[in-house]
Design brief:
Elements (H helix, E strand, L loop, with lengths): L4 E5 L3 H13 L3 E6 L2 H11 L3 E5 L7 H9 L6 E6 L9 H4 L4 E4 L5 H8 L1
Parallel strand pairs: 1-2, 1-3, 3-4, 4-5
Length: about 120
């Protein structure tokens, strides 16, 4: 079984560091980090990760728009949205964005991501 590569996108360095440690300890390979939507799109194109862990609220745009851009051609990475808010707050936006799903930041785990990728 190959290792899943991940790009972490969040404007908070502390969350990126925590998510990196958690995911690497659970067998994922974090290949990059980005702090806003524009750098996320550039990094995803340059690094070609299997998965983009994408915060809903970014300083320059929202994660829904970034997810839609990354998944528009159907050949992009899998996208999983995260937020400190509950998924119910976003209604149908998650499904419309092209993302595989949503995980609250407090519930982030390798198992939660694997469930959405299978």
């Amino acid at each position: 079984m190959s290792t899943t590569t991940v790009l972490i996108v969040d404007d908070h360095p502390s969350f990126r560091a925590t998510a990196r440690l958690l995911l690497e300890s659970e067998g994922f390979e974090v290949v990059g980090e980005a702090e806003d939507g524009a750098s996320a799109v550039r990094a995803a194109r340059a690094l070609a990760p299997d998965l983009v862990l994408l915060d809903v609220q970014l300083p320059d745009t929202d994660g829904f728009q970034v997810a839609a851009e990354l998944t528009a051609n159907g050949a992009g990475p899998a996208v999983v949205l995260v937020s400190s808010r509950d998924g119910d707050d976003f209604g149908p936006l998650v499904a419309r964005s092209g993302a595989r799903g949503f995980v609250p930041k407090a519930e982030l785990s390798g198992a939660a991501l694997r469930d959405l990728l299978t």
